[in-house]
Design brief:
This is Alpha-acetolactate decarboxylase. Belongs to the alpha-acetolactate decarboxylase family. Pathway: Polyol metabolism; (R,R)-butane-2,3-diol biosynthesis; (R,R)-butane-2,3-diol from pyruvate: step 2/3. Its EC number is 4.1.1.5. Keywords: Acetoin biosynthesis, Decarboxylase, Lyase. This protein has about 260 residues and is mainly beta. The chain has a single domain, classed as 60s Ribosomal Protein L30, Chain: A (2-Layer Sandwich). The protein contains 5 helices and 15 strands. It has a 7-stranded mixed β-sheet. The longest helix has 12 residues. The N and C termini lie far apart (about 35 Å). The structure holds zinc ion (ZN).
């Protein structure tokens, strides 16, 4: 697995973070579209092994919304309804996931800042509201609230129906990595417009889909993409035959996923 290291950057590069084209570090790979989760097309149509061919870093969800996935340094972890992170095998399947080849650039250090303000400033500093980028925050969080959806069985419910079938976790003074993707508003439906962030503690005992957080102190890294590759599950008959015109996709995604502040 190839990783590009941006070594020993000590000052803020916020205004100078551009796509790095070497080793395809400018490419965000996505399997599926968030829209397919809305009517409950939750069958796993790719594997961790396949996803890792396109990157060493990423997030996703398992078949039947089985947990929250986070991939760091080529290793995939799942946080299920227990809140404990466990490594998943390469044949683990997913309906939706993102990955990319890590080549993060240091953006800034931050202290005592809530998630909403932090996310706003990351976009402002970058001037990247219409750009896909990944954000990685490593540090100590005085407060971290995450969730994990409870695995659903076929026939699968809709995204709105599973919204209340989730476990919520709270931790204080936890050190770890928050990894996420920012998607421009015009791509709402293909992804969540705005940030979609997952967390993994350094001791791998805790994590999940980030609902709210306060960063006590930490470093913020960004990686900007100029290319989005979307791989669709065209061999899945349920996906092929589904009529999306009846699904209120944008609204359902906003309701179930879009507001990370609550
Ligand atoms: Zn998530």
């Amino acid at each position: 697995m190839e990783t590009i290291t941006v070594a020993n950057v000590t000052q803020s590069l916020a205004k100078n973070i551009h796509p790095i084209t070497a080793h395809d570090a400018n490419v965000l790979y996505q399997h599926g579209t968030l829209a397919l989760l809305v009517p409950g097309l939750l069958e796993g149509t790719t594997t961790i092994g396949e996803l890792l061919k396109h990157g060493d870093t990423g997030i996703g969800t398992g078949e039947g919304l089985d947990g929250e996935l986070i991939i760091l340094d080529g290793v995939a972890y799942k946080i299920g309804q227990s809140g404990v992170a466990e490594q998943v095998p390469s044949d683990f399947t997913m309906p939706f996931a993102n990955s990319h080849r890590a080549a993060f650039q240091f953006q800034c250090s931050r202290e005592d800042i809530g998630l909403e303000a932090l996310n706003e400033r990351i976009v402002e500093a970058n001037g990247r509201a219409n750009t896909f980028f990944s954000v990685k925050v490593h540090g100590t969080f005085s407060f971290m609230k995450t969730r994990a959806v409870i695995k659903q069985q076929a026939p699968y419910p809709t995204l709105l129906e599973v919204a209340d079938r989730q476990a919520i976790f709270l931790r204080h003074d936890v050190t770890g990595t928050m990894l996420g993707y920012f998607s421009p508003v015009m791509f709402h439906g293909a992804a969540v417009a705005g940030f979609h962030e997952h967390f993994l503690s350094d001791d791998h005992t805790f994590g999940g889909h980030v609902l709210d957080a306060v960063l006590s102190h930490g470093e913020i890294y960004s990686q900007v993409f100029d290319t989005l590759v979307t791989h669709l599950p065209v061999d899945d008959p349920e996906y092929r035959n589904h009529d999306f015109s009846q699904d209120n996709i944008a609204e359902a995604i906003s309701s179930a996923e879009g507001d990370t502040a609550h």
